[in-house]
Amino acid sequence: MITAQAVLYTQHGEPKDVLFTQSFEIDDDNLAPNEVIVKTLGSPVNPSDINQIQGVYPSKPAKTTGFGTTEPAAPCGNEGLFEVIKVGSNVLSLEAGDWVIPSHVNFGTWRTHALGNDDDFIKLPNPAQSKANGKPNGLTINQGATISVNPLTAYLMLTHYVKLTPGKDWFIQNGGTSAVGKYASQIGKLLNFNSISVIRDRPNLDEVVASLKELGATQVITEDQNNSREFGPTIKEWIKQSGGEAKLALNCVGGKSSTGIARKLNNNGLMLTYGGMSFQPVTIPTSLYIFKNFTSAGFWVTELLKNNKELKTLTLNQIIAWYEEGKLTDAKSIETLYDGTKPLHELYQDGVANSKDGKQLITY
Prior knowledge:
Layout lengths: L1 E8 L5 H4 L1 E7 L8 E11 L1 H8 L19 E2 L5 E7 L11 E4 L10 E5 L3 E4 L2 H6 L8 H5 L4 H10 L10 E4 L5 H12 L3 E6 L5 H11 L3 E4 H4 L5 H11 L3 E6 L3 H9 L6 E4 L6 E3 L3 H6 L3 E4 L2 H5 L3 H16 L9 E4 L6 H10 L6 E4 L1
Parallel strand pairs: 9-10, 9-12, 10-11, 12-13, 13-15, 16-17
Antiparallel strand pairs: 1-2, 1-4, 3-5, 3-7, 3-17, 5-6, 6-8
Helix pairs in contact: 5-6, 5-13
């Protein structure tokens, strides 16, 4: 019998007020044929996790008494990396020691162990398997635990909607220093797409511009330049020299920033909005719709992949290959080890409180 712990909530509210740790038992001696027991290696704190707890996120985990609570409670966490420790007699695709991630959202990853069926998980190569396959690098816990959202979001936005011609066409994005922005710059370079990253002005601007260009951004501009009509001809000249077009914009800011990147697109351009960090509405001039046949759409990786395990697996395989080849750099997390000295939910509450300092990852 395994005594496991999970972070739960019975009522929506602020994480500091509603989270608690619940102990529950997993009978590892009486597995059903298709069941799998996993232990957690790491799980991050994402903005969507916080919003789910607050009750303001569209996708929410179901509440259950399956963890042994008297009142129905929901598990927290969507991303996480697990190691298989035991499988049922009919499970052929997984074995003890394999690394896996949840195949669906709302699995509940803020926990020490989990019991599921084999189709609840997608296998990732563990470092020993990568080495055995001749790969120069194995996945780190941070790469595995954070692979499902940011790198997949960047890759799918760049490849799933618009056909960009390698070596010629451009995409432009705001939030260039965000995790998704950095992944998009890197993936754009790997796919030979030209890119413009828009970032806020700052004291160490030259240093940040250099670091983003080293990651893969073709050009980096400030929000002032993004909103400047005088700077527009410079951008047009960059695009003209490549012989391509600016076909795609990636918006995670909203407000004036989204208007600026939309204006940079050529005719028939598409802007995908996947966030709204400024809390300002996306405002698009009517003329772009009429005279440039501009299209604005939303992107939510959860919805896109919800019923498409094949697309998720194909995308994961590409990201994994780049990680193993050392071609893709992950966004580093601030890691905190769970050693049992504090209740598990307090580590995640601390992670929520410290999330403005960078992505928080609880490791086990």
